Amino acid sequence: LVRARPRASPRVLPSMTTAEEDPPAISAPVAQKAVSFDPSSAKLLELERKLAAKDGVMNEGVLATLQQYVASGGKPAAAIELLSENYRGYAQMTSLVCGWLAATEEGDGVGGGGKSKRASIGRGGSAIPSASAAASPSAHVANSGAAKREGGVGDHGDDHTPQGGATTKPRTPFSRDGDGGDRANQGSAGNLPSLAKEAAANATAHALNDWRTRVRHDEMHFLEQLIKKKFDTRRVDAVKGRPQWLQRLLNSDRCRAVLFALAEAHPNCLLITIAIQHAWQHGHADEVRALGPAAASYFSIFHELLAYHFRSLIDAGDDEEKRALAADAIKTACCQSLATYLFAQMMLADLAGGGDAGVGGGGSSNSQVRALAVRISQELETTAAAAHGLSTVRKIAPLLCASDADAAATEAAGELLLAAAETRERQEFGGAGGGLPQGILRKFHDMYLGDADAAGATKPSKAPLRHPDLLRSLFDDAFRWAGSGGVVRPESRDACVDLLVLATTVGDDEATTTKAALTETLSTCERAARGQQPNVAALGELVQIPAVAAGVLSWVRSGLGSPDHYRDPVRAKASSAAYLSLAETVAKRSPRFRAEVLDVVTVALKAMGKAQSEELHLAVMDVAVEVVACGVVLPALEVATKSWASLVDPSHLRYFVGEVLEFTAPPFSGDFAGSVLRLLRAAGTRRGMLPSIDAFVSELVGQRMK
Predict the structure, then answer these.
(1) CB-based contact 66:78 (threshold 8 Å)
(2) Among 96, 230, 476, 564, which is least packed, fewest CB within 10 Å?
(3) DSSP string, 95-155
(4) Which is more confidently placed, 416 or 9?
(5) Among 671, 606, 686, which Cα is nearest to 638's?
(6) How far lies 153's CA from each of 53, 107, 112, 120, 210, in Å?
């Protein structure tokens, strides 16, 4: 017989080798048949590719892939081999490293500081927090107690805490270790269950609070940082349909927080839009409110947010802190765009007119609410002007007026404000100040005080005239030192005074009294410019009228704030003394203008520079000391630290601090002590310079020791 030549084995794919052959460690399973390229084989190859992926066993759909693979004819043993041989443990390595970071993290907590955590690792204790501990800090209290009963800290192997590292059970009255346990054993047995329950609740609350307030450097934390760094709006919005992971993403507090953190940088992202709307509709309105301006891009949410802020503003009542928070929230949300600004102004106009502005609860019949709406509207306009430009905002203002006459007056007022802004800008760069344009001022004056019957037009309301910026410009033009630049025309000054009287008074009698007071004050200021000291007693009665006090400060700011005022040292010395007397009288007799007096001091120090005489600087500081004596303490100290430190000699700051400390007495509050210490540091103060400062520091040391 002729021995038959053996036939060569056919070339088969790794998944189609015979059962007798040893497949490679990471190869696909073998098959009993020859190669076949039918659809079922292609599907089997695709499933094998998924199972052979690195860390494929950790994929979310691995169970479904296994079922499909076995149903398609694949061998379970081969599937197990593919999954096990290609397992790398990247997720577990990440958890391990995060556990190390948590274990070596400095700080105090339920799990102790970094030193005790490292010690527990050295003794073999587990320092890796589990997912259950990260999700439920209450488990930490039970686990730590069980670990202690098994042999103390570091001798357990399943210590899962939010911090990682060694666990130290909070010492409670029923603890087995320490003196607390001895005292518990001496008590009655009937009280032990209640004591144990109360102590366990306290320990759980402590662990929960620590878990919530601490930054958890777990896998999610670093994944959040990576998302924030690599987030691409185009790739996210390119996803078609509704992915399966979207609902879980929206339901997770931490995932929503990551998306909300990206909202301001990516306002047009579709995914973030969906997340914001989902949070608003599913009971997470607080998260959306915390977004601030980022939520203003969605009108349905913006309207409800604005109504909420308005209700908070009204409910604040006389609480200035709550009112300021609500006002800041409104300004932040509404100045995101001109559309949101215009809509907010329309709501405020309705609220000021007696409507409810969509906030519910009926109309705003309360006069305080209407006045508050007007005030917030004016503050909102100032904020929007800084964000979008004064000219743009002033062009929008006539659209919000209630009548055509008000719209015309608002337009003229806008032109005056633009001219005043240009004047202030020229003054900042050392140019001539000048005044308001005479033609526009006369036109605006005739709208209110002209012959309406002859013109055949309706007079506007006082609302456009009472705009704060316009009033400031009218005061600056009426009470302006002649040497500050430009020509002071009597007719322009008279027109400004007439408009100021109309804006600040109600009734003919009050108007007559105020106009006479303003006229007399102008004469007093002109005499002060020539170096004549004012009659303090008579001036003290006049400045109790708010319009008079504002006019006096406008004149003093115009004089002391002009570098030209100090060109003639002899004349400047006499007139400056008179001006400072005017400012000091306002500080004593008109409480609402004391903050403005501080602004006048800052303007004067900036204009005179360090080249002027020490006597003049100290005289200005005396006015600031008088403001502090009147009760404006912390604002004055903060202004001195932030603004005056760069304008005057350090010795003058020490003089100011020493004078303030002369009429203060211990015990000192923390805010006051901190402000004074910051000012002393800015002034380069050392021990022995002033006795009052040394006594203050000694008193602080004594308070701290107590």
Answers:
(1) no
(2) 230
(3) HHHHHHHHHT--S-STT--HHHHHHHHHTT---PPPHHHHH-THHHHHHHHHHHHHHSTTS
(4) 416
(5) 671
(6) 41, 18, 11, 7, 20
